[in-house]
Design a protein that fits this description.
Blueprint lengths: L10 H29 L4 H10 L3 H9 L7 H12 L1 H10 L7 H9 L3 H11 L6 H29 L10 H13 L3 H20 L4 H25 L1
Helix pairs in contact: 1-3, 1-8, 1-9, 2-8, 3-4, 5-7, 10-11
Amino acid sequence: MAKIRTDEDDGFLNGMRAITPLIVALIPIGLVFGSVAATKGLSPLEATLMSVLVFAGGSQFVAMDIWSHPASWSAVGAAALLVNIRHVLMSASLGRGMQGFSPTGRGVAMLFLADEIWAMAEVRSRLAPLTPSFFAGLVVPFYGAWVLSTLLGATVGAFLGDPRTVGLDFAFPAVFVVLVIGFWKDRQAGFTLAASAAAALLVHRFVPGVWYIAVGAAAGLAVATFIDAGDEAASS
């Protein structure tokens, strides 16, 4: 995971430096999404507008999985809500370090919350308060790379065919493996990640849909709360 600098003179540039390695990993994912969208019948403009307006890779891929003609908007919307419900926990976590943001600024910032942006902002918030300039440095290049790579993927998608044949589908899980390793610092993190993964895998195996995402998040939260309570009891 990129090293986070805390000097304030070039907060925007610090954000850009922190997010750049993840942008390199993001581009293949955007290409894959654009290619998949093209195989579902979306035009390059439609696929790009989806990335511009939705800006949620997990939800967009799930939407493509259940896409049909005509599309069931209720099913797509419900799946997107379920996939992104984890953002409630992510935004609550970041909110503790956003004292320098206005209420409006916090709301706007959360519209551009993605897993990679959250991870870099969370690391920064443990070292120093988050600033609007640093957060903008994370968002602007990351958002631009996602939109442009979607456009490119959708434009050439018809020629690429199935992205799995060239291994591009591995880019998505690879990014999350890196993020998980970056946060695995102590016993609590290890138990939390293990509980979340076990619960998600179990539900994914036996329950259709994307419920495994919400269940995995809930299991991780429950274990982290239990460990915190135990540590407080032991120290009192």
